[in-house]
Amino acid sequence: MFYDAVEVASRDELAALQTEGLRRTVATCLASPFYRRRLGALGVGPEDFNSPLDIRKLPFTTKDDLRVGYPDGFLCQPREDFIRLHVSSGTTGAPTAVFYTANDVAAWANLVARCMHAVGLRRGDVFQNMSGYGLFTGGLGIHYGAERLGCLTVPAGAGNSKRQLKLLRDFKVDGVHIIPSYALHFGQFLRQEGVDPADLGWRFALIGAEPHTERTRRRIEEVLGLKAFNSYGLTEMNGPGVAFECAAQAGMHVWEDAYLAEIVDPQTGAPLPDGETGELVMTTLGRDGMPLLRYRTRDLTRFIPGECACGRTHRRLDRITGRTDDMIIIKGCNIFPMQIEQVLMAMPEVANNYLIELYQENDMDQIRVKVEVRDEVFAAAAPTLAGLHKRMVARLRDEVLVTPAVELVRAGSIPAAEGKAVRVEDHRLLEPA
Amino acid sequence: MFYDAVEVASRDELAALQTEGLRRTVATCLASPFYRRRLGALGVGPEDFNSPLDIRKLPFTTKDDLRVGYPDGFLCQPREDFIRLHVSSGTTGAPTAVFYTANDVAAWANLVARCMHAVGLRRGDVFQNMSGYGLFTGGLGIHYGAERLGCLTVPAGAGNSKRQLKLLRDFKVDGVHIIPSYALHFGQFLRQEGVDPADLGWRFALIGAEPHTERTRRRIEEVLGLKAFNSYGLTEMNGPGVAFECAAQAGMHVWEDAYLAEIVDPQTGAPLPDGETGELVMTTLGRDGMPLLRYRTRDLTRFIPGECACGRTHRRLDRITGRTDDMIIIKGCNIFPMQIEQVLMAMPEVANNYLIELYQENDMDQIRVKVEVRDEVFAAAAPTLAGLHKRMVARLRDEVLVTPAVELVRAGSIPAAEGKAVRVEDHRLLEPA
């Protein structure tokens, strides 16, 4: 029934596990340059933690802290114990890196396997991973979990819908991992190909990496002819496998034996009661290599009060409803407007202003950048402009990892803002949650 | 000194291991529909194998056999024991699939770790995998091997040179896996960026997936400022990790405890003595899920006579010097001209003739397809032709997995062949080996 007995541990048992995990994690953290300094200044040690609530004795860790500590200021084990790292962003946006020991990779795979089991997948099922691999944790993270569960795993990677379809059919796939925007696009592709999704015989889609509404989920289920399950994860907390929906599809169980989750007021940092929306703050309880204490995810959500029909005792997170910063998520990639600005401002042809527009096309979220170019450049011959356009697209793609549409416009044609510049216009259809 | 004591086993010990492996493999094969029929017809069983040479009692297995058996006619274990599959080609070219049990994945990782150790990489070294992941075995195959060896593995994936460079620097990478054409391209990129390769401090590049000459290897070593090691593998034999150069760089040791390699006359199938060039034929000795007996690789090479300075006793394969079929390898992807023909002939706008041209640009092998289009299409407005061009590029890319240059030409403009049509023109610089 459950992948792991801990999924139905009593709340008291979970509290005991969390306390123990918190003590162990604080002890481990003392080996890293960053936390040794920070915890040393506070004078706290493992012995100060006697309940999960004692976590409030600790200060927050922020993305800026990770950037300052980049690349390896948070490591708690000898260098030779690490076997993997993932990086969260491009080349000019200050990146953050997460390092994993062999134990961490195995524990992560186990959590992902638990998530996939909760959805309904079992050993022997065929599972196609339709998300990109590489530094994006969604690829290798889900892949290792699927193998751990014992699914026959098809590492399809992202894109190439025709080939995806052939694999789905040839190997009688039961479940897939797919980002929501590509799921909608793939549904459109199936319609164009005249494929009845019901004929595919697939049953499960794990959809994560992009926040989406309940209506989008229902639409994915309709166009693909399966059940779609929301997934939550972030590279700083390993990647996918942090919180996952069960068959009840009523919120995402956060694995409380592996993570201590809090919801706080984003302004004051004060803890909020279950049911109230605030910023999700996460602490790893079982990570050896690079534990993080009270990491501010900048994701806005809430705990769903009450018990879940499935019997699991781990609390459920509601859908992510927003961010406390200006991060944009397109095709599963995290983009900060500042990354785009840095690329543009390093190009001498660019004039003063630019505008990022978000829109939808073919059911997928897209990004377009309007860029003012200097008058003498704008007046140049067509091949010069075309060359600049090509170069700009390539540099932006290398930085944000998706290919944006780029439109070169005359200097002065983007209205100057009065006061704080508006750099992003979101024209995506906003659907009721 | 060695990753595994078996690397220096005596030839007698290896022969005993191979005989034992051959018996076990024949016994395992009897569980698959394909081999049960074939071995049954011959009346041979495990007891008939008393030396590695007894392998000659067995018939060959060909790529056509694999295609006929697609998708799962070669499986020797219950379906639920498989956790991975890789597929060797696109959507219309009849694909072949290889399935792996958990044991197979672990054994494969072990062989790759052994290869990486032979090159000089060690636990604690930082290793950047600069090849694509997904269904291409070079990605996950090398990745699992690097983690098994205990390297800090950076799953960079292919492309995005700027980001690759940042990762190389930030994490002080010791070794990389990179396909030869991208290695040369990356060298050019470093020069353009004004980077002295010596400043990177890297030492090793594993280069595989594309046959290349000794001169290309030396050029890669020069432009990257490291030692480059040739690697041999093919999806049917797991992927990378079949044969690998050691520090002596004098041929690729084929792991004879895991594979039984033969060189045969491609016309008659008769075994050739060590030193003579012929077709490489491979038998898996340790694979549980999908063992293959006497698989004809279509790769032309020879055993290098004599002993290796490194002390390893496993025989060495020379560079691959050609193929017995018309397969083209571009950017690590296997392309058969027939795949291109099938895509083109499914498009009603296409006239009778086409031509595949191979050439070099930016130090990388490229593919261009000239396609005759019907007169009324050729006479159509520019947007119509542009639309056709775009559609054709997309369909070809989806099929062969690299993006070809496409040139639409007037019907009749490609000279008709007298006799057998010439479909491929190879304009690549042929370098002396």
From TrEMBL, chains A, B:
It is an enzyme of class 6 (ligase). InterPro entries: AMP-bd_C_sf (IPR045851), AMP-dep_Lig_C (IPR028154), AMP-dep_synth/lig_dom (IPR000873), ANL_N_sf (IPR042099), PA_CoA_ligase (IPR011880). PANTHER family: BLR5969 PROTEIN (PTHR43845). Residues 332-428 form the AMP-dependent ligase C-terminal domain. The keyword Cytoplasm does not apply. It comes from Rhodocyclus gracilis. Residues 79-282 form the AMP-dependent synthetase/ligase domain. Catalyzes the activation of phenylacetic acid (PA) to phenylacetyl-CoA (PA-CoA). Pathway: Aromatic compound metabolism; phenylacetate degradation. It catalyses: 2-phenylacetate + ATP + CoA = phenylacetyl-CoA + AMP + diphosphate. Belongs to the phenylacetyl-CoA ligase family. Its EC number is 6.2.1.30. Keywords: Ligase, Nucleotide-binding. GO terms for molecular function: ligase activity. This is Phenylacetate-coenzyme A ligase. CDD domains: PaaK. It comes from the Bacteria.
